[in-house]
Amino acid sequence: MKHLIDPTDLTKEELDSILDLALDIIADRKKYSEVCKGLKLATLFYEPSTRTRLSFTSAMMELGGNVLGFSDAKSSSVSKGETCADTTKVISCFADVIAMRHYEEGAALVAAMNARVPVINAGDGSHAHPTQTLTDLLTIRREIGHIDGITIGFCGDLRFGRTVHSLIKALARYKDVKVILIAPDQLKLPDYMKYEVCELNGIPYKEVKSMEEVMGELDVLYMTRVQKERFLDEDEYDRLKDSFILDAEKMKLARKEMTVLHPLPRVNEITVEVDDDPRAAYFRQVENGKFVRMALISRLLEWADDPEHNSSLVPEDAVRNRHVCSNRRCISNMENVDTLFRPSADTPGQWRCVYCESKPKL
Ligand code: NCD
User: Fold this and answer.
1) What spacing in Å lies between the alpha carbon of 165 and ligand 1's midpoint?
2) Looking at the DSSP assignment, which residues form a beta bridge with residue 119?
3) Cα of 264 to ligand 1 centre, how many Å?
4) From atom 6 of ligand 1, which residue's Cα is the shortest distance away?
5) Domains of the chain (ranges plus CATH)?
């Protein structure tokens, strides 16, 4: 069975087959209107969401299927203390596919380990958000025409922004992509992303402190919100929240073919005047999200019984219960699961948590 917990769960061929199917759905929506007739998607959302949950819901409805679930953990048995593992076992009895969003990092992986149906990670803490990545890739393909060879600038909260982490990992599958990281010191991309994802995959990256100095180099500008809910110190959030604001003046420095993406919701980081610029693609991006989720649901259901398409949830080199994760938001510190660590890809002697990729506690 194939789950989508991290973008690297998909091979390049699987990734392309989902994007190709999304393009075909866009070209002929009627053809797909009964693909999921009689099937059910469960949306288990433990964290707020507008776009992602409704996008999954409308995707399943357009495929002729049905949707059940909750959008607030307080209204589910979580409030009685039920674990994510148990909830998933229960929901596997009701649904054919599960989409889960959770504030704990690694929650979707625990869900997949316990499910009898495919699980889709709809965002786990600040760790990963692979369906936003599919949305972003489809949008780049539709706006620019190709993904190979692009120069992409990520701007804003690169530390907590899970959409950034997942998109960079997926871009490692494409050729000649260049990454420019635009963030204040406090919100820089985590080291494991720089060393184990960019360097190991040969993705050239540079870090800069202002948008102006790189605007003219970019094919794609990926703006992000400063992730207020992940800050422990509210004053720190207030100091950083307006670090970068894209406005019409800055757009003048960009190429006329550049495209602006944003996973939304936007707070202050793009002024509304930019919305009328034809290069602003973030609302088109939302619609692409629905089409790509239609393609993903169809493919995961098609692959569910196909041994060719399998997710190995526990890496072969993982060790059990020898370390404790240093990340207090990791599910391994919240629920009674085996702690699982694998050797770091680039640093000998270093370990990474299989659930959230953090280092062990010393
Ligand atoms: C993003 C998320 O939830 O990570 N939103 C989304 O899914 N479209 C980005 C964000 O919340 O800033």
Assistant:
1) 12
2) 98
3) 6
4) 263
5) 7-129+287-303 (3.40.50.1370), 131-286 (3.40.50.1370), 316-362 (2.30.30.20)
For ligand 1, say whether the CB of 163 is within 6 Å of any of its atoms: yes
Within a 13 Å sphere around the CA of 252, how many CA atoms are in the beta-carbon half?
2
Nearest partner of 43 among 23, 70, 81, 25, judged by Cα: 70
Q: Average pLDDT for consecutive 10-residue bins of the chain (362 residues)?
A: 96 97 98 98 93 96 97 79 94 98 97 98 97 98 98 97 97 97 95 90 95 98 94 91 95 98 96 98 98 98 95 94 95 96 88 96 90
Q: Ligand 1, closest atom to CA 224?
A: 12
Tell whether pTM > 0.85: yes
Q: Is the Cβ atom of 225 under 6 angstroms away from ligand 1?
A: yes
Distance, in Å, from the CA atom of 311 to the CA atom of 307, rounded to the nearest integer, reads 10
